[in-house]
Amino acid sequence: MGTLYLVRHGQASFGAADYDQLSDLGRRQSVRLGEWFAHQGIRFDGLIAGTLQRHKQTLAGILEGMDHAGGHLDWEGLNEYDADAVIAAIHPQPLDKPTSPEMVRHHFRLLRDGLAQWMAGVVSPRGMPSYRDWAAGVAGALDHVRANHYGQSVLLVTSGGPIATAVGHVLGTSPETTIELNLRIRNTSVTEFAFTPKRHALVAFNALPHLDAPELRDWITYA
């Protein structure tokens, strides 16, 4: 049996010109998670990450917290979908920068609707593959882990969409459930799979053991 830890990136820069950068808090979340892994005596035989900056920065923070050095495998199939393109497919007018809770809620209502239509094949967001092809990139990463890391511990750093898709793939959830899982995943949360060469099994989802202290409650974020 092997263990696969899927980690969502730390807090990124939602609403900024470049979302694909960790915030200062996102960097601290990442280092803190690495410290927790080290405290638990967890070491990784394999390191895999999407190729977005927030993935690489999160992995770097985790390794810093673990005082661990090592190369990792880049996996483009673990990159997040383009949320702006998904929204634009159903709402062509540009959205203003969110400056209030209601504007943020409106953004995510549109995202939920756009994801449902993309997954159903109703819309084709500009510059993106079909949902079937995009999800195949996530499934390919799971296949790679099973084929190459049996009996080992593997860390995989990615985004909420691929993690929800991986869970949905393993559990056979409906598209609606996969979307709800996606929108609930917290920054630097840990989802754990046990795996054999033939299958993965979900052990834990969206856990934040490294932030389980009253003084760290303000470190829990979603975007």
UniProtKB/TrEMBL annotation:
- Superkingdom of origin: Bacteria
Q: Which SUPFAM superfamilies match?
A: Phosphoglycerate mutase-like
SMART domains to which the protein is assigned, alphabetical = PGAM (SM00855)
Record's Pfam families? His_Phos_1
Origin species: Ramlibacter pinisoli
The entry's keywords:
Hydrolase
Keyword field contains Cell membrane = no
Show the GO MF annotations.
hydrolase activity
Q: What is this protein called?
A: Histidine phosphatase family protein
